[in-house]
């Protein structure tokens, strides 16, 4: 079996009387795309927040590359190689697409306390950043302020940023959201290849994309994972059909 | 490479500022030299603030603390140099500007680190009020500590000295201040273009994103706050030497407000915003002050109009919207 | 003797705290409901004091002056809300700071224009002159006790207003969800004007009452404003309860610090030096308290929301 990169163990998070995460255990193995699906309000966002570090779980722990990261902050987890995209695009709006990626390259190099060298003349920043933009097909838009990019382009930019971090695992929060059919198709193809660089935990509503991409699928309902399995197993699972796919079946 | 419109305007501004004292000498109106020196010093103070306010988006309402500390460092070192009394730990005073500036940098660096460490744990309105409160604390300390003049302030009998220059000559002192302003602008421009500047500006635009790529905004902001206080502090030392007086009013919250006003009048986050703002402000003060005793009333009205209707300041008006590479 | 002195100092601290509460309640209410930071709140305090002093001098009645202070500050508040402040709700904090800073310049210089540079004086009304005997043999001015009582009454009144009335319900709704209150069909613009005028009236009222203890002059509101900022930062911005507790804390700590620190230091240092050090330290004390509280709870003692 492939090596486990990210391992979540018995995670619990309460908001007052509401148990938003109820003993979730989940793992992500080298080379796979593991999709996390579930109806609205199932607690996917809460779970993502705990994995990337914006929320602290009440119980349980999270291991990443063999290290316990439960107590670490967002920036520390990112430095260890946990790359993420956001449900709503999160970029520095005044910076150009290129500078957004350059920031990630700089972060990866761990050199934010340099005061005197202009970044735009620093080829150790511009070249890798440009290469990432080329990979996601955004090179032609490198100089455009991120605020002026289209919705789909911002999604691509976020992925370029995650790539630049040379992450050891990707956490992609609804990357297909708001993309047209063309864009979704292109992105699906791209993610398909990406899994060989680093495994992907994919939270996604677009079932076509999930069924096309996922090696394994976990179904989250009311804060609990009701089942984990391959695409075929999930399609056939009666519990999933009633809880989640009920209206499609 | 062609000059951008903003660069051209910047050049014109600095040449204009540099030319005023010489014209003033030529027409026998040395008073204008003092005016130009005041502009250069206030601009330098605002360049410091612009680092946190413009690049970092952190509205510090307490930068008068650094301005005042710089002033008092100049005053206290000069007082001990002239009396010959040791300062503390057996250290002597000094009437040499470079020494004074160095001490100012150290003291403001320490104070900036301390104030920043507490204030930057918060954000938004909390940050505004806390920086204000800390500068007020230093103000009350200066007022209630009688050893160095208390409420009356501290006179500097003879302007401190600069090696090889007669600093008592107004034009020489202006050139010293102009040199410091240009050095400050150079530093600001380097920092803005650097990796540190990139992280600082990105943290203003989207702190969540910055953390998500693995850069913690807090240490970046703390370093910027400290640097910023150090620059404003040196301006304070120059200001005390200009007036030959360090007064508690340099630490008052009006001063903090004025520094913010300078930046916004000129154009927030722009390299020459503080210069344009200081020129406008001092000229307003001088022109309105010549017309009416109540000039602050009209300054208030103008400021209100700028905030409500003319965002982007003078440079926004002249050079268009700011662009980030 | 010492106990009487201590009680006296404690009451002085309480009186300062009560005044700070009147200022801080308005500030924190305005921030909580409209998200606005208002530096000109101290100007409204000054407007109240000047209105009270002027009307009291005219009519000979402090009580009419007090009514005038409420009316003048509320009116001034409503006018600046309608002309300036409401344009600032959607702006960032920097714009709010600048515009209200500009208002301070206009108010201060305008007041100097109308009333001149000399301070006005306001007498304590005959009814409240004199002193009350305290346990331990000392006497305490009746007027200061009255201020404490009035402050307590206002605190209760505000509590009832916000928890029991229709206006209070709307204010609470405005604090938690601005869209929802629009959906409820409440006219937000009017609500905002009312809240701003209410906060202004509280500030003006405080200014008028303090005016009889100190002189009435331009700039009198600014030290109080900054203390009120410290209060709401400690108490948690947006929380009236936090403002009350923060105000009493700041009032008592500041007053007792000025009284006790020189005495404590006198144990360790020669008296002259102890006096100096103690005075200087006491003036910094509340800011140090604030820093310590923030180091532990960066959003204040009582966080209103979020």
Describe this structure in words.
The complex is a heterotrimer of chains A (249), B (325) and C (306). Chain A folds into two domains: 1-81 and 167-249, P-loop containing nucleotide triphosphate hydrolases (Rossmann fold), CATH 3.40.50; 92-165, no CATH class. Chain A is built from nine helices and ten strands. Chain A has helices at residues 44-52, 74-80, 97-109, 123-135, 151-164, 181-194, 207-213, 231-236, 238-243; strands at 4-15, 18-29, 33-37, 59-64, 67-68, 82-85, 169-173, 200-203, 216-221, 224-229. In chain A, the strands form two sheets. Chain A has a six-stranded mixed beta sheet with strand order 6-7-8-3-9-10, with helices on both faces. A four-stranded antiparallel beta sheet of chain A has the order 2-1-4-5, with helices on one face. In chain A, helix 3 (97-109) packs parallel to helix 5. The model of chain A has no long low-confidence stretch (mean pLDDT 88). With 325 residues, chain B is mostly helical. Chain B has a single domain (5-319), classed as ABC transporter involved in vitamin B12 uptake, BtuC, CATH 1.10.3470. Chain B has a two-stranded antiparallel ribbon. In chain B, helix 3 (64-83) runs antiparallel to helix 4 (97-119), helix 3 packs across helix 9 and helix 10 crosses helix 11. The longest helix of chain B is centred in the last third of the chain and has 27 residues, at 217-243. Chain B starts with a helix and ends in a 6-residue tail after the last helix. With 306 residues, chain C is mostly helical. Chain C has one domain (2-218). A two-stranded antiparallel sheet of chain C has the order 1-2. Chain C is globular, with a radius of gyration of 20 Å. The relative contact order of chain C is 0.18. Classes of the chains: A alpha/beta (249), B mainly alpha (325), C mainly alpha (306). The interface between B and C is large, with 41 and 44 residues.
């Amino acid at each position: 079996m492939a090596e486990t990169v990210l391992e979540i163990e018995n995670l619990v998070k309460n908001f007052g009387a509401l148990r938003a995460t109820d003993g979730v255990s989940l793992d992500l193995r080298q080379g796979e795309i593991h999709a996390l699906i579930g109806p609205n309000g199932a607690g996917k966002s809460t779970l993502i927040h705990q994995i990337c570090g914006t929320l602290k779980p009440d119980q349980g722990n999270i291991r990443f590359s063999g290290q316990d990261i439960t107590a670490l902050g967002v920036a520390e987890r990112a430095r260890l190689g946990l790359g993420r995209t956001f449900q709503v695009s999160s970029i520095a709006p005044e910076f150009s697409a290129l500078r957004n990626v350059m920031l990630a390259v700089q972060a990866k190099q761990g050199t934010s306390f340099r005061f005197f060298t202009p970044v735009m003349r620093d080829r150790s920043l511009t070249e890798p950043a440009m290469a990432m933009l080329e990979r996601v097909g955004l090179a032609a838009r490198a100089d455009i302020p991120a605020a002026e990019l289209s919705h789909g382009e911002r999604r691509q930019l976020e992925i370029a940023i995650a790539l630049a971090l040379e992450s050891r695992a990707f956490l992609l929060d609804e990357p297909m959201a708001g993309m047209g059919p063309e864009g979704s198709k292109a992105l699906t193809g791209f993610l398909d290849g990406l899994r060989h660089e680093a495994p992907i935990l994919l939270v996604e509503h677009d079932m076509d994309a999930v069924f096309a991409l996922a090696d394994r699928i976990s179904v989250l309902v009311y804060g609990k994972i009701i089942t984990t399995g391959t695409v075929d197993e999930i399609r056939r699972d009666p519990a999933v059909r009633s809880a989640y796919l009920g209206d499609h079946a | 490479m062609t000059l951008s419109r903003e660069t051209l305007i910047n050049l014109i501004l600095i040449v204009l500022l540099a030319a005023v004292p010489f014209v003033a000498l030529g027409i026998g109106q040395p008073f204008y030299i003092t005016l130009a020196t005041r502009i250069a010093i206030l601009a330098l103070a605002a360049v410091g603030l612009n680092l946190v306010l413009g690049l970092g988006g952190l509205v510090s309402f307490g930068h008068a603390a650094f301005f005042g500390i710089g002033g008092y460092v100049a005053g206290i070192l000069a007082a001990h140099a002239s009396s010959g009394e040791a300062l503390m730990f057996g250290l002597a005073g000094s009437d040499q500007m470079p020494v004074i500036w160095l001490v100012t940098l150290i003291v403001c660096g320490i104070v900036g680190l301390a104030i920043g460490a507490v204030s930057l744990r918060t954000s938004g309105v909390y940050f505004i009020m806390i920086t204000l409160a800390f500068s007020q604390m230093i103000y009350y300390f200066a007022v209630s500590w009688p050893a160095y003049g208390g409420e009356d302030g501290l006179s500097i009998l003879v302007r401190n000295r600069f090696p090889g220059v007669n600093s008592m000559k107004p034009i020489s002192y202006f050139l010293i201040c102009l040199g410091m302003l240009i050095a400050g602008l150079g530093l600001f421009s380097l920092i803005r273009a650097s990796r540190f500047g990139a992280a600082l500006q990105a943290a203003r635009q989207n702190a969540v994103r910055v953390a998500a790529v693995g850069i913690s905004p807090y240490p970046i902001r703390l370093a910027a706050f400290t640097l910023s206080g150090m620059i404003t502090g040196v301006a304070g030392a120059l200001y005390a030497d200009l007036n030959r007086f360090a007064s508690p009013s340099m630490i008052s919250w009006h001063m903090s407000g004025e520094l913010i006003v300078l930046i916004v009048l000129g154009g927030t986050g722009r390299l020459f915003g503080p210069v344009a703002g200081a020129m406008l402000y001092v000229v307003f003060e001088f022109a309105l002050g010549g017309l009416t005793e109540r000039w602050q009333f009209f300054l208030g009205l103008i400021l209100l109009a700028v905030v409500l209707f003319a965002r982007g300041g003078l440079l926004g008006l002249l050079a268009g919207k700011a662009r980030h590479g | 003797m010492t106990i009487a002195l201590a009680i006296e100092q404690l009451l002085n601290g309480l009186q300062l705290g009560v005044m700070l509460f009147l200022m801080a309640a308005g500030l924190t209410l305005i921030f909580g409901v409209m998200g606005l930071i208002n530096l000109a709140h101290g100007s409204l305090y000054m407007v109240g004091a000047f209105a009270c002093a002027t009307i009291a001098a005219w009519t000979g009645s402090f009580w009419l002056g007090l009514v005038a202070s409420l009316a003048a500050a509320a009116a001034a508040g409503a006018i600046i809300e309608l002309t300036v402040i409401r344009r600032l709700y959607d702006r960032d904090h920097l714009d709010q700071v600048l515009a209200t800073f500009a208002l301070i310049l206009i108010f201060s210089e305008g007041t100097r224009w109308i009333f001149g540079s000399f301070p006005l004086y306001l007498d304590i009304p005959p009814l409240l002159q004199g002193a009350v005997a305290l346990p331990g043999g000392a006497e305490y001015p009746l007027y200061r006790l009255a201020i404490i009582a009035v402050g307590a009454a206002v605190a209760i009144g505000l509590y009832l207003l916000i928890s029991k009335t229709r206006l209070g319900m709307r204010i609470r709704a405005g604090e938690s969800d601005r869209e929802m209150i629009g959906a409820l069909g409440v006219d937000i613009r009017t609500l905002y004007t009312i809240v701003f005028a209410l906060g202004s009236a509280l500030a003006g009222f405080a200014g008028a009452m303090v005016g009889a203890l100190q002189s009435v002059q331009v700039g009198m509101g600014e030290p109080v404003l900054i203390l009120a900022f410290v209060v709401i930062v400690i108490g948690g911005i947006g929380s009236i309860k936090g403002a009350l507790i923060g105000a009493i804390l700041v009032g008592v700590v500041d007053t007792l610090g000025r009284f006790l620190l020189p005495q404590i230091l006198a144990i360790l240092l020669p008296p002259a030096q102890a006096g100096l050090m103690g005075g200087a330290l006491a003036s910094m004390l509340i800011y140090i308290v604030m820093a310590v509280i923030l180091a532990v709870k960066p959003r204040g003692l009582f966080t209103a929301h979020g």
